[in-house]
Amino acid sequence: MKIGFIGSGNVGQTLGLALIKRGHDVMLGARTPSKLVSWLETFGQNELASVGSIQEAAAHGEIVINATPGTVSLEALREAGSQSLAGKILIDLALPLDFSNGELRLSVANSDSLGEQIQRAFPDTKVMKTLNTVTSALMVNPLSLADGQHDLFISGNDADAKKEVIGYLKEWLGWQSIIDLGDISSARGTEHLLLLSSRVYGAFGHPDFNFRIVG
Predict the structure, then answer these.
(1) What is the 3-state secondary structure (H, E, C) of the chain?
(2) How far apart are CA 180 and CA 151, in angstroms?
(3) By mean pLDDT, which of 22-31, 68-77, 105-114, 124-133 is the weakest?
(4) pLDDT tens figures, 42-99
(5) Residue 66 forms beta bridges with which residues?
(6) What is the pTM of this model?
């Protein structure tokens, strides 16, 4: 499958690498594609790995993944262009982190979420919020923790697209338990989970953890 990434930082590079290893045709999109030369060189002559502009990556992907910092996600996606995103699934990994006052806060909170803002801005795109509650290392290797016995969440309005993405997460990355939280407004909960995760990180001293829901 052709997959386009909007955003080319650690998350995009880590997830992109994992998907290329599984045989997918991946393009990382960045405002300055030349900065990704070293990442691209690690693949040698592998035709499944490419880099391009944000617009090129969005057009390339049958599925598009938003791996930008949350505070610039809307700007980057608008740069990608609504036509390139229309009708497609957009997997949104971003978190609206705000460090402007010296402490971790969310720039979107309470009665809204970044996932909802993206869906409103791109009504013809099927926005699926997921993978935003774990580190990039755990995204691509859930079996590295508790034999995979922990939970991922997904939020989105389109039921068929959601089932499709759940299937991809299981097939591509090895996730075993994915909890459907409902429509895109439930992204408020998973985005807010970062505030708890940051405290757990402080208590544990490392980010290699996740949550398991027992009921």
Answers:
(1) CEEEEECCCHHHHHHHHHHHHCCCEEEEECCCHHHHHHHHHCCCCCCCEEEECHHHHHHHCCEEEECCCHHHHHHHHHHHCHHHHCCCEEEECCCCEECCCCCCEECCCCCCCHHHHHHHHCCCCEEEEECCCCCHHHHHCHHHCHHHCCEEEEEECCHHHHHHHHHHHHHHHCCCEEEEEECHHHHHHHHHHHHHHHHHHHHHCCCCCCCCCCC
(2) 11
(3) 105-114
(4) 888 889 999 999 999 999 999 999 999 999 999 999 999 999 999 999 999 999 988 7
(5) 6, 92
(6) 0.95
Which pLDDT belongs to residue 99? Answer: 79
The domains located in the chain, with CATH, are: 2-204 (3.40.50.720)
Q: Which residues contact 77 (CB under 8 A, 6 or more apart)?
A: 6, 66, 68, 85, 90, 118, 121, 122
What pLDDT does residue 158 have? 98
Question: 197 is written with which tokens?
Answer: 């995760």
Residue appearing with tokens 């957009």: 90
Which residue from 166, 90, 172 is spatially nearest to 128, judged by alpha carbons?
Answer: 90
Alpha-carbon distance of 54 to 192, in angstroms, equals 28
Confidence of residue 20 (pLDDT cuts 50, 70, 90): very high
End-to-end CA distance of the chain: 36
